[in-house]
Write a structure and sequence with these properties.
The protein is mainly α. The chain has two domains: 54 residues; 114 residues, no CATH class. A two-stranded antiparallel sheet has the order 1-2. A hairpin with a 6-residue loop joins strand 1 and strand 2. The longest helix is centred in the N-terminal third of the chain and has 51 residues. The radius of gyration is 32 Å and the shape is elongated.
Length: 186
């Protein structure tokens, strides 16, 4: 082999090495850009989730409102004198005044009539036993499609202005209610 062929061969090998280095550096550059993009996206998602969930009301409000016998919504309205110590008048809701548990012949008083529960679910939330507490339709158009969403709308987020952020917060709380209290209690 002559010197000229050896030099040409050596030049070709150096060019291959240089182009290989360029491809390697290009690959590392693209990987770095993608990694930075993913990191920025994750930070944005964490920031958005934190902002969205900031100030969510506590789920402990619901038992304070509904659990018998001392639930706040089960109590009569009391009017006090100007000192705030003496009750002048107690107003009982007409519906609450005659409130008696439903009794079925031959059944313990603690049991709820299954037919009444099923009828209520069929009219208000037909997918109650399958849905996660919210529906995507409700998140997008602001309807309160599930019982859990209706509960959140009426008692936890009633003061918030309607919009996409409120709908997402409503869905989050509805899912938490289902998980925390269970479907039977709802």
């Amino acid at each position: 082999m002559s010197l000229a062929t050896q030099l040409a061969s050596s030049r070709r090998q150096r060019r291959k090495k240089k182009s290989g280095n360029l491809a390697t550096w290009s690959g590392w550059g693209i990987a770095a850009i993608i990694s930075v993009g993913i990191a920025v996206l994750l930070v944005g998602l964490v920031f958005g989730y934190t902002r969205l969930t900031a100030g969510l009301p506590s789920l402990e409000t619901l038992p304070l409102l509904f659990e018998a016998p001392n639930g706040l919504l089960l109590q009569p309205t009391r009017l006090y004198d100007r000192t705030g110590e003496k009750v002048i008048l107690t107003l009982m809701s007409p519906a609450a005044a005659s409130r008696l548990p439903i009794k079925i012949a031959g059944q313990p008083a603690e049991l709820q009539p299954k037919a009444l529960i099923e009828a209520t679910l069929a009219s208000q939330d037909p997918t109650f036993w399958q849905n996660p507490g919210y529906t995507l339709k409700g998140l997008l158009d602001g309807t309160h499609s599930t019982l859990a969403q209706k509960l959140v709308n009426e008692f936890l987020l009633a003061h918030e202005t309607p919009g996409l952020q409120r709908n997402i917060r409503e869905g989050l709380l509805a899912a938490q209610i289902i998980q925390r209290f269970g479907r039977e209690k709802i």
